[in-house]
Amino acid sequence: MASMMTTGRVPVPLVLSLLAAASLHAGSVSIVVLATTDLHGNLYPVDYFTAQPAARGLAKVATLIEAERARQPNTILIDCGDTIQGTPLEYVYQKSNPLHEDPMMLAMNRIGYDAMTLGNHEFNFGLENLQRARSNARFPWLSANTKLEPRSKARAFDGYLLKTVGGVKVAVIGITTPAVPTWEKPENYAGYRFEGGVEAVKRAVTSLAREHPDLVIVAAHAGLGEGSSEDENMVRAIAAVPGIDAIVFGHTHQELAEQRIGGVLITQPKNWGMSLARLAFTLEGESGKPWRVVEKKSSLVKVTDQTPADPGILEIAKPFHEAAERYLSTEVARSPAPLDGILGRAGDSALVDAIHEVQLHYAKAEVSFASLFNSRVSVPTGPVTVRQIASLYIYDNELYAIEGDGRMVKDALENAARYFVSCAGEVCGKGPLTNKNVFGFNYDMAQGVSYEIDISKPEGSRIVNLTFKGTPLAPDRKLRIAVNNYRAGGSAGYSMFRGAKVVWRSAEDIRQLMIAYFTERGELPAKADGNWRILPELARKTLERDARAEAARSGLF
Q: What is the C-alpha to C-alpha distance for residues 405 and 478, in angstroms, rounded to an integer?
């Protein structure tokens, strides 16, 4: 054996190792964090509801990721959750499992994700499906605030990832919106409890202190918290926790290139793989001293029609995509007239009435609440397929029947009416008359009652002439009300439903109930029954005008 050269009493290899370690903290280094969120099963660059190509999906995002890595090898790639639910591609897989591994995990493995935050929609298909997808992943699913119940046999989630890139020790803390129990059946999260995100980040930062990370990122499946419950969306509050350099977040399906909150860098990529977040950090250091962040900035890399899809991801997705297309092409019923959603938020709509009809039937309810999730839906006269039903009801929500009363109905309609801004006189003819802080998919309409929405009145006093079976609806009138599971949990300001007694839950999601109902009935409604309208008349005309203009801009006319 050759003798080891030494310098004094220290072996040469050890001296070289120490010198190399010291040199890592001399000069400057650049690190890039890439992030996606709310992919919702979007692999193929296609809109399954129109069967048209679309600038979205992980196959296109993969091309952007490869290009970013070529420019900067010191890169970490993360996702902020709501990944294994959303498109018909994932739905068919989750329900029938004709193939062995989750398509999103197969694709993300190939791309080389470093971590993913647990999203609330990961629980939609139950724990068996969640754990199968998680086992398919070759990267950790993170959630610092999802904890095991005592004596739970479930599998724990790591709170954070620690990875050294370019000599820099990067920590990624995962946070899940803790409102899961308000939306999911207990069996879908059995064995887990959900703590507040802010306290969980504080504990994670304290725990990480012994690891001395140079860069701390929070990957949150939660929104900023503006105009919504901070229990559900707490990113702004998390930014106040000392020791954080940046937050990339999701959940709300919005987009934010860059914002600073108390010095913390904030960004949100667009949902469905429509953009990629790029967080760039420059760190400087002196020998023997920790790195310090001297510059940080974020931007969004947009997916476009011209972005090529990665052939390897398309190959992975192909059998799942083909199974989804077979399912979507199944004929369900007929439509006696051409129907579309263009004016479906400006007045009563046959398409929304179709949802109500199904909900009232299965929930055996007296009043139903539903939203037009997709105003681009179009159903021509003639055969109606699963694709068209799916384009009308795009979410995998379940149907609940709850015990309520007239006051609950009135309060819910007042909350829905926040979708409009107040106007009076000639102002009602100018527009826009919709509230940019209230998403259209959170504007619910009711069936089983008749009412008017007078937007010349202030918020909270807009619902007038509210009647039930031809007489004014008394606040204390007991009612059985049909809502989806998200409304029952009080989401989007519908707190009046939270805590109401749930007297029935569907075994299938609402989309499947619609398919079953109209397969048996054979025909969609031909026209709306006109049980509600918007006042003043000038405001209604302005809303219709603006809806048609938006449809024209979107190519629907």
A: 4
* In 101-167, alpha helices (H): 103-111, 127-136
Q: To which H or E segment does residue 321 belong? A: helix 311-328
Is domain 26-282+293-322 annotated with CATH 3.30.230.70?
no
pLDDT tens digits, one per residue of 424-440: 999 999 989 999 889 99
List CB contacts of 364: < 8 A, sequence separation 6 or more.
Answer: 401, 480, 504
Element (H, E) at 76: strand 75-79
Q: What angle do CA 62, 67, 70 make, to 5 degrees?
A: 125
Measuring CA to CA, which residue among 167, 163, 248 is closest to residue 208? 163
Distance of CA 35 to the CA centre of its chain: 15
User: Helix, strand, or coil here: 371?
Assistant: strand
Each domain of the chain, given as residue ranges in start order, spans 26-282+293-322, 331-553
Amino acid letter for position 387: R
pLDDT tens for each residue of 97-127: 666 799 999 999 999 999 999 999 999 999 9
Half-sphere exposure of 353 (CA within 13 A, CB side): 19
224 vs 120: CA distance, rounded Å? 16
Amino acid identity for residue 428 in this structure: C
Count Cβ atoms below 10 Å from residue 453 Cβ, excluding itself: 21
Nearest to 357 by CA among 452, 447, 442: 447
Residue in the structure block whose two tokens are 């072996």:
11
Burial class (CB in 10 A: 0-12, 13-18, 19+), 16: exposed
CATH 3.90.780.10 fits 331-553, yes or no: yes
Contact 538, 354 (CB under 8 A): no
Distance separating alpha carbons of residues 225 and 287, to the nearest angstrom: 41
- Cβ within 8 Å of residue 20, ≥6 positions away: none
pTM beyond 0.70, yes or no: yes
Q: At what angle do helices 103-111 and 58-71 cross, to 10 degrees?
A: 10
pLDDT given for residue 6 in this prediction: 36
- Residues with Cβ within 8 Å of 251's Cβ and at least 6 positions away in sequence, in order, are 37, 38, 80, 81, 82, 119, 120, 177, 220, 221, 222, 223, 232, 233
Better pLDDT: 16 or 377:
377
